[in-house]
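Supplementary material to the annual report.
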Amino acid sequence: MNSYSYTPLITLLPLAGFVILGIFGRKYFNKTGGLIGTGLLLISAILSLYTAYQYFFVNGKVGDTYQTITAVKFTWLTFSQHVSIDMGIILDPISVMMLVVVTFVSLMVHIFSLGYMHGEERFATYYAFLGLFTFSMLGLVVSSNLFQIYMFWELVGVSSYLLIGYYFDRPSAVAASKKAFIVTRFADLGFLIGILVLAFYGESLDFATIIKNLSTAQSTQFVAITSASFLGISAITWGLTLVFMGGAGKSAMFPLHIWLPDAMEGPTPVSALIHAATMVVAGVYLVARLFPLFTINESALEIVRIVGVTSAVFAAVIACTQTDIKRVLAYSTMSQIGYMMFALGVSSTGGENGLGYTASMFHLFTHAFFKSLLFLGAGAVIHMVHSNDMKDMGGLRKHMPITHISFLVACLAIAGVPFFSGFFSKEEILLAAYHSSKTVYVLALLTSGLTAFYMFRLYFNIFWNKDTEVHGHHGEGTFAMKLPLILLAVLAFGAGYIPFGQFVSTDGKALESEFHLAFSVAPVALGLLGIAIAAWMYMKPNEKPQRVANAMGGLYKAAYRKFYIDEIYLFITKKIIFNLIGRPAAWIDRNIIDGLMNGIAAVTAKTSALIKGMQSGKVQNYALYFFGGVAALLIMFIYFWRP
Amino acid sequence: MNLSILLILPLAFSLILLFVKGQKQVRSVALTAAVAQLGLSIVLLFKFLAERAKCNSAFLFESNYTWFKQLHINYHVGVDGISVSMILLTAFVVLAGILVSWNQEKLYKEFFFLLVFLSMGAYGFFISLDVFTMFFFLEVAVIPKFLLIGIWGSGKKEYSAMKLALMLMAGSALVFVGLTGLYYNAKGAVSFDLVQLSLHPFAPAVQKMFFPFAFIGFGIFTALFPFHTWVPDGHSSAPTAASMFLAGISMKLGGYGCLRVAAYLMPDAAHYYSTIIIVLASIAILYGAFATMMQTDLKYINAYSSVSHTAFVILGIAMMTKTSINGAVMQMISHGLMTALFFAVIGMIYERTHTRQVAQLGGLLKVMPFISSVFVIVGLCSLGLPGMSGFVAEMTVFMGSWERAGTFYHVATIIAAASIVVTAVYILRAVGSAIMGPMNNNDHLQLTDAAWNEKTAAVLLLVGILVMGLAPFWLNDLINPGTEVIMQKIGMIK
Amino acid sequence: MNEIPLSHILFVSTGLFFIGMYGLFTRRNMITMLMAIELMLNSVNINFVAFNKYLYPEKLDGIFFTIFIITIAAAEAAVAIAIVIHLYRNHKSIDVEDAAEMKW
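Predicted assembly:
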């Protein structure tokens, strides 16, 4: 039955790249490392496209339903009778979709980096890390087991850490990498405990089994998990919320988002790959993977919804004020992932009700292309002007036409302008939100307007506005840098025309997406309004932005300082964790506990010092003790001894 | 296979060492000894697997001789999967330890003699099935450490050596009280024999009386809170190889003893006291991690993190589910490999920069990529990166602890799990300021990367870590029957 | 015949014994200590002679013992003084406190 036995190759080829380049790269492949990594990934990408073709068009469907196919599976570590970690590859619509997205974007980034990172001292190491990341991400998306996903989850975290800290001699990069890892680690703690809860009650770690066990009403496991509670909240809510916490950390959802803007310290292509297109959507993917469980628990789903929509609005507001172009993109990523998150939150299963789910995955799909395009474009710009700040940019459309056009396409796509890919996916999300919750819908609409505004603020500031002197000794970049931009631009435009509902839905059956012209009016109008305002403010150099900022006063300042979330975290870690827990713990250990041990030793020494005077080495004293003893015995026997 | 070879080989080599002259000859003999031990333990592994497939007894390769008839002390040896894995761990660490002390100049003969001699103590401990000989070998493994730290150490070495020896001796004394208690209260024939003793369960009152002695006694070896304070001082003063031995092997003696003697022979008392032990272990895990966060000396960082990590062993044993005990054994092996490698790398850095203060290091990745990469890798292993041993062991402990139903146990597990965040903080702080970051000291630009012996040692331990991390099912298969036997006694098998 | 009662003699010997003991414990000069030991020995001699005379006048055991003790005391004094002289040669002192090399 299994015609997918080649699929492990998709994940293992990038790993091979990591191993080869990681061990021998420095010595033997420092020039050719990039080509080796790219070549391996190319094969991997072709294989995953082939897999997608096989799955979606040849044999994935039984009847009208897409099946979940387990391509490979073996037991990796057995815990107890039912619970074991299996390593496996499952193919279902979302994992196949993710395979394509990850390998494709990664390939683009690999190619782009050939030009961007050219001449770096640790060129091969860079490709090794990229390989490790791609391997981990692919492993994550094809996971068949809750614990397997957690393992690859950690691995993507580490590869992200290594890549953010790639420029290891910059203190800011080191700090950012640490921050990214620790914040996501904290979230992963929740994930881990969530896994423990779910595995304990679900009596399995396997996705299919655990979902079957827990979502069948009246099964013993279902009864156990819903009746057990801790602090008044049922175990299933705890489990799912904690798992979601892990997802929120990785996906930079409010309030665990603080690492993402700082993560932009890494090389820009890395940001495009990890912090825009792939790793950060892992949280969304995780929720989608466990979606059948989330749908049986309204409170967990509500948390997903609230966190998603909060992050979407919050990040969009901040993005309007930032001047570092990568940070703008980072906040925009956060906002878009918020979109995907609440789209899941408003969804339920089955047919039309599962629209949010489909929309979320669709947006994930289109977002991957236009966001990585934006990042790569930003990378090209940064490569040109050697600065991240939009104050140092302007008028670049004359110097880098290809970048300009592709960037514009991506901006139009993310702003939701009709006929571009983002329009289709965003429309579906809004529709799903409209049917489910009006509050969410209004906030989403607002965010969509803001998105258009800040993206075009970015666009105009980079490519229009004032003219910048460009010391262009290398022009727009090599062919390796242009090719990915062009390919991604094509997809950023065209990806929306894929009838996504045909392939991805909650129940595996095709979902006909309808197009409501009347419904689209509001978001499109808002989007165009945002673009217009951005054009009015930023097309030409003028005083308007400053005036607007002054008029906004406190709000602008607060948004510019990212609503002081960083400061709050800093306070908690530096002041509370370090000063109130760490330092006392270390002090107590050195002084009280070790003091106790030393105290015991000291008491022993004191006692011995006290009684060692007895043993003076002077025979006279001994004789005295002897006579004293004799006298004492004598007195005792004479006066007290009465037999 | 005759297990006594495991004792005769190191003993013979350590005696040969006494008659060899010259640094080159001495160290090559020592290296031969270590390689021979490793070879022997690998042979043992395969023979064990082959033998186990054939027969079904708890211990294999048993042999039993009377040693001291009047006191019923026998020389009774035999192995199960747990001891085989421990023996392999010892062989790995010994070889790596001898490789990193390759350039030992001060009193090299005595140094290598003690290293080889120590390994005999460890092997003897792991193969003993007679609690008295077990105790005997425990002592053999302790006393040389006093000399290793006192003579070849650094810093306040006399103080540390004394502290370590005294605390470990106190531990042995407690162990001895526990063992004699068992000896005189045996229900069957009066005996020190582990197998004999396990046949007839002790009266609960007797167990409750003597369990704390044995458990705390062995617990001191494995840094049971609050008796862990010898660890930071001892490790930081010890020479590299001794640190590796200390953390890699002798802390495991305690864990093994807790499991094999205390929990196995006195299951009722283990249940009775498990709550207290779990509380102590959870405190040690989290508190050790927080204390590590504030350390500035690399060796102190690793020593405190050992306190935190070995508490997982205690936690796993005290949780008393099969998975958690499996996890405890895995954590022993994982921690042994990992921490030995960590100390080896710290030793390499110290040898070159002459400082272990994190603040004085920085940017080492630029000048010594190999050492720095190993440092980063072992750091990642320590914080539980999948694909390495630390992850497998910790997760098994977590899964096993969570299997024990009850809010108390779950909260304890959560507390233990919270340490993974704190671990990440201190490891990344150390990596961030010692390995990455800008170069603080321009003198460091002249430093050289690892030499062949250091590379071999690091790769050897890395291989162990990766094999365990990538293919944990092998180790699981190896130790599983052993833990099943223990579980049958403890009686909570699911 | 108005004999001197035994208790009187015993008082003398006890007194002598404790004087000797006091001397032995308090003096650090080896010659004085030697003399103190002689005093104690002689107090014992007095006891022996007195008991022999008053309790068993027909026997001579006490006298014999006294002669033994005197002989041994003489030998002992000879050896002790040899030691003292040797000590003096090495330490230029006969204070017992100064000979502390073997201590600890």
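Chain A touches chain C at residues 617-620, 623-624, 627 (CB under 8 Å).
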